[in-house]
Amino acid sequence: MTSVQVGDENRPPGPGDVAAPPASPATGPAGGPDHQSDQGYHRALGARQIQMIAIGGAIGTGLFLGAGKAISKAGPSLILAYAIAGLVIFFIMRALGELLMYRPVAGSFSEYAREFIGPFAGFATGWTYWLFWVVTGMTEVTAAAQYMTYWFDIPQWISALIFTLVLYGANLISVKLFGELEFWFSMVKVTAIVGMILICLGILTLGFSDAGDTASVSLLWSDGGFFPKGIGGTLMTLQIVMFAFLAVELVGVTAGESKDPEKTLPKAINTVPWRIAVFYIGALTMILSVVSWTNFQPGISPFVAAFDKMGLAVGAGIVNFVVLTAALSSCNSGMYSTGRMLRDLALNSQGPRLFTRLTRNGTPLIGTTFSAGLMMIGVWINYQWPGEAFNKVVSFATISGMWAWVMILISQIRYRAKADRGELPQSSFKAPGAPWTSWFALAFIGMVVVMMGIDKEARISLYFAPLWALGLAVAFLTLKKRNPQGAAFIKR
User: Fold this and answer.
1) pLDDT digits (tens, 9 = 90+) for 240-258
2) From CA 491, how far away is CA 24, in angstroms rounded?
3) pLDDT for 271-321, tens place per residue?
4) Is 211 helix (H, G, I), strand (E, B) or coil?
5) Which residues neighbour 138 within 8 Å (Cβ) at sequence distance 6 or greater?
6) Inside any domain, residue 471
7) pLDDT in tens, 160-193
8) Residues 323, 326, 331, 334: is their CA dihedral positive or negative?
9) What's the angle, vertex CA 491, arms to CA 419 and CA 423, rounded to 5?
10) What is the C-alpha separation between 110 and 121, in angstroms, rounded?
11) Exposure of 246 by Cβ count < 10 A (0-12 exposed, 13-18 middle, 19+ buried)?
């Protein structure tokens, strides 16, 4: 495909240019959406890559590292917390799937919020999701730099700088390279979890390793019961559990660059239940059946702790490599999604026009560069405070990520109402049980926010939210005065 140069409005079109897309979605035959030409992007992500992006989005450092803290708070009942939260995530993803099959676009939930809730909702969702990935990118590149010190005695900031530059370059080369990186990053994570499950099954049935004599499914209830810290302890882990699932919605951002979205996206979304069942419920059930929950503590990966208890010294190095991969995968996803979100905002006159520019390979040049530049703050933090870097950049990732889920659910509820009235075409991938399942998911997210307010450690996330909301409101009012088109409702 030829070069796409969008955003230079005063320059006459050249022989290698493609015209800029309209700010609002195009309409196809019979009033349906025309998504075959999606804003100049290349549809280069195949089914294999979409499936692994979907799988990788549900497996990250929240599981490999965060689960240790959650186990110490809730004991074996954490398995139930993941199961219930996993059901809610499935409701969210099916709601997103219904919207995607109505109109699969690169802006995804920001576009849907703009259409079904209002221009400010789209504005706030786009910028909040962008900030979420910028902050996440900083935290993950910081974590990756810390993991490198396991093997090499080099300053953290050097590793952070190298990782940021490499992933930035890969994202500018082509979306296909991004997809390949995510495929292999996800493959490492999946292989590690499946390997752990098989090792634990072997210990439970054959009794080998140092843990063989004590390993038993009864460990799930014998050390203080299934709820050793009470129901309250389980509820207090919900924010940790939901943080682990953040980025599962990333598959929606790939809609505008999927080769065959009508087939690949529903298939990827429908695999959510078994992914959660295997990678979260299955893995934790196996680990907690081999090693008592009392052996786990915050700050230590449950996988590392389990390997130590089994007497498998090689396990620590393997798990360190896996969590390094998980961190790089998350940072890679951040590079990808931030550029797309900024471009979607610019195309809808809600961001600087220069963010619309694409490279010859169809990647958002300025948006990705700007976001990567901000992620470089993580490199500076690693230089200034190498021992405290991770804690300094973790702030409101959970609350900002859940905002996207809320917008997805509300958009789906409003879309379904319009479709049922015949005002819009019905989606080919309806969410089962909706809108009731969407209302249930919204109520569950509300409960998680309340739990975050009660938990002193998680409360800091809520302190930043009002400040960010105020900043967005001021920015939107300024936009409304200077560029009314960006604050206008979409008419369909």
Assistant:
1) 888 888 888 887 777 667 7
2) 9
3) 888 888 888 899 999 999 998 999 888 877 788 788 877 877 677 788 888
4) coil
5) 374, 375, 377, 378, 381, 393
6) yes
7) 889 999 999 988 888 888 888 888 888 888 888 8
8) negative
9) 20
10) 8
11) buried
CATH of the domain at 410: 1.20.1740.10
DSSP, residue by residue, 162-175: HHHHHHHHHHHH-H
In order of 99, 473, 482, 484, the CA distances from 478 in angstroms are 30, 9, 6, 10
Report if residue 14 sits inside a domain: no
Domain around 291: 33-487
Contact 252, 95 (CB under 8 A): no
Number of domains in the chain: 1
Mark out the alpha helices in 225-384 (DSSP H runs).
230-235, 238-245, 250-253, 261-270, 272-276, 283-290, 302-310, 314-347, 365-384
Q: How confident is the model at residue 34 (pLDDT cuts 50, 70, 90)?
A: very low
Q: Work out the pLDDT band at 57, boundaries 50, 70, 90.
A: low
Contacts (Cβ under 8 Å, ≥6 apart) of 358: 3, 4, 5, 6, 40, 41, 343, 364, 365
Q: Is the peptide bond before 261 cis (omega within 30 degrees of 0)?
A: no
Residue 21 — very low, low, confident or very high, per pLDDT cuts 50/70/90? Answer: very low
> pLDDT digits over 154-169, tens only?
888 888 889 999 999 9
| CB 250, CB 333: distance < 8 Å | yes
User: In the numeric block, which tokens belong to residue 492?
Assistant: 């369909």
Residue 221, domain member (yes or no): yes
Answer whether residue 467 is part of any domain: yes
**In the predicted model, what is the mean pLDDT of residues 327-350?**
86
Look at the chain and count its residues: 492
Predicted local confidence at residue 58, as pLDDT: 66
Q: What is the pLDDT of residue 388?
A: 55
Q: Which amino acid is at 157?
A: W
- pTM score: 0.84
Question: Is the separation of the CB atoms in 266 and 429 below 8 Å?
Answer: yes
According to DSSP, residue 16 is labeled T
| Nearest partner of 319 among 196, 160, 182, judged by Cα | 196
What is d(CA 279, CA 360) in angstroms, rounded to the nearest whole number? 38
Instruction: Give the integer Cα–Cα distance in Å for 19 and 440.
Output: 43
